[in-house]
């Protein structure tokens, strides 16, 4: 039984509180505690046990496994699958599954590649827009500061607008400032 298979067996529900490991007649008790499952799997595989028993908090047996028998089962299943692969229909089905998997793999690679390209182009465009906006903002600020520093000339648009506004406000006050009637008495 490989360390990965041992770890998978250990992690089955309910999870064990302790393990009783039998190696060539020698029985040892291993507390699980907060030990990592990977470390437990490697430790147990290194001992090459004859029997592994999972125990709960009260010491009651939850499950047990003989790693040597598990390896024999996997060997026999692989040899039986070899005899099945000689069937022409199975070979055809495996070929179809392999080609389909390769097609999905290629399609996913192309799709993700295009998605990455689009993302890169979008990022470059956003960066260019930000640079353009920053330079436009900088130019406008510079023009505004220059306009504030120099005295407005007689022909400046700003001065004309202010003069027209002041003239209109002055005309309103000359007409007594009384509102016009709306036709009702």
Walk me through what this model shows:
The structure is a single chain. The protein has 185 residues and is α+β, with helices and mostly antiparallel strands. The chain has two domains: 3-75; 87-151. The protein contains five helices and four strands. It has helices spanning 3-10, 37-47, 67-84, 88-149, 157-174, and strands at residues 18-23, 26-31, 51-55, 61-65. Strands 2-1-3-4 form a four-stranded antiparallel beta sheet. Helix 1 (3-10) crosses helix 2 (37-47). It starts with a helix and ends in an 11-residue tail after the last helix.
**Uncertain residue segments:** none
Report, as a whole number of angstroms, the end-to-end distance: 107 Å
Task: Describe the largest sheet.
Answer: 4 strands, antiparallel
Q: Portion of residues in helices?
A: 55-70%
Count of the domains: 2
- Individual helix count: 5
The rounded Rg comes to 42 Å
Oligomer: single chain
Task: Summarize the structure in short.
The chain has 185 residues and is α+β, with helices and mostly antiparallel strands. The protein has helices at 3-10, 37-47, 67-84, 88-149, 157-174, and strands at 18-23, 26-31, 51-55, 61-65. Helix content is 63%, strand content 12%.
What labels would you give this structure?
5 helices; alpha+beta; 185 residues; single chain; 4-stranded antiparallel beta sheet
Q: What topology emerges from the helices and strands here?
A:
Layout (H helix, E strand, L loop, with lengths): L2 H8 L7 E6 L2 E6 L5 H11 L3 E5 L5 E5 L1 H18 L3 H62 L7 H18 L11
Antiparallel strand pairs: 1-2, 1-3, 3-4
Helix pairs in contact: 1-2
